[in-house]
Amino acid sequence: MNIPPVSDATTIAAAISQGRASAREVVASALDRIARIDGRVGAFTDVLTERARMRAETLDAAIARGEAIGPLAGVPFAVKNLIDVAGLPTRAGSKINRDCPPAARDGTVVRRLEEAGAILVGALNMGEYAYDFTGENVHDGDAHNPHALDHMTGGSSGGSGAAVAAGLVPLTLGSDTNGSIRVPAAFCGCFGMKPTYGRISRAGSFPFVGSLDHLGPMARSVADLALAYDALQGPDPEDPVLTSRVPEPASPSLESGIGGLRIAVAGGYFARGGDPEAFTAVARVAEALGASREVELPEAHRARAAAYLITAAEGATLHLDRLRTRPRDFDPAVRDRLIAGAMIPAPFVERAQRFRRWYRDAVLTVFDSVDVILAPATPCRAPKGGQTHFVLDGVTLPVRANIGLFTQPISFIGLPVVAVPVRLDAGLPLGVQVIAAPWREDLVLRVARQLERDGICTAPVAEIA
Amino acid sequence: MPETPPPFDPHAYATVTAPLLGLDLDPTWMAAITANLGVLAAAAELVAGFPLPDAVEAAPRFEA
To answer: From the CA of B44, how many Å to the nearest CA of chain A?
Structure first.
């Protein structure tokens, strides 16, 4: 195999397509690394050894026949365990869902990546039912931050971030309702993409909050994000909110640079309430991009509050029968929030949904004069595992409820975001959200790629102690 | 988000609402449930504090 054992997806796909490596070798290398390292990281809940080996053999045989395999030829990937994998119950981080019948077929996003040549090697740890920002799980054990194993991965796609940061696989899929891709990307120091709401099919994934749920990729390079994003697009009648837009591949414009783009920093709400380092990370990215202008997303604090209400109410409604019949089988921290969410008076939720319309219109107006907005991904670096409170701006706050305070106002109206990793020093990484108007994933990927090319944002594999 | 609850009695509210929802609450859960209700009520107060014209409808779709 003429590539390093831990390579990014673009490198692997090129090597396999050109015959410099075989899918069998690449999959064997990934499975070996998972077996050696994941016991300390806790990223995987299921490793699909036989399925991956068989698929690799099939691909190698196809390549030997001269067939074109696809842009993700032989790339090992893994998915958050709320995404259907044929033959596995879709546990969604829970104990309860393990009693469900195994999924009859893979979720749409798994099929899309495999159609592009990728090879599924496993399912990944997550916070229970995705109601989580920590990456901790009382049933499966916590995912650990590969850059400091005693710190959180962030969640709820904690295994997705950890698997990429630890170099177990080059590509994972996560879900993001309020920040669940962007938070673990920031804490684990990798790139994470939350496309526009409705861009990527969620069919064959276990929901959390239907009006806020997104799926998206995580990787160690922007080109890998773009490859995956391009492969994931397409129509799917099984997702009722999926866009009817034709797929708009982002890879062709990835190297276009930032010339002509109007880039600004989010001020006001997004410039306070976090550790100074979170804002230093934004400033470093802004300086590299020559972004000196500041814009305000109006009433972002209320947007966050409204997202919080809608999440609690919709999530509780989804789980109400389970709360009635099996309340003791939930993670208590999830159960107690869901029960409270079930009790929210309807006018509170309806008001939040109406505010959402107002906020959406107001923020779209901001995009009349700017193409890309920068904001912190998290208010701090990854807290210690099990940490329940932190101090932000002099105020002691619960960790679980507040890690997502900068991500929630963005996903609330479905804007596309790439969370880019920033390393200020030898300590844990931070993340910055690169945000654009709906359907402009091409812009956030271009900006992320420029930052990567300039060495401002990199995602090296963690050295596991 | 501040943990300061607004002036209502979340314990009494949870006690009355649970049977309506068919939920059987263990008394040991009440402290966490009421704390969460307090946070939710504060969030609702924040949202309600913004004046919205009657014509503003909910936004289940976000097409640009």
So the answer is: 6
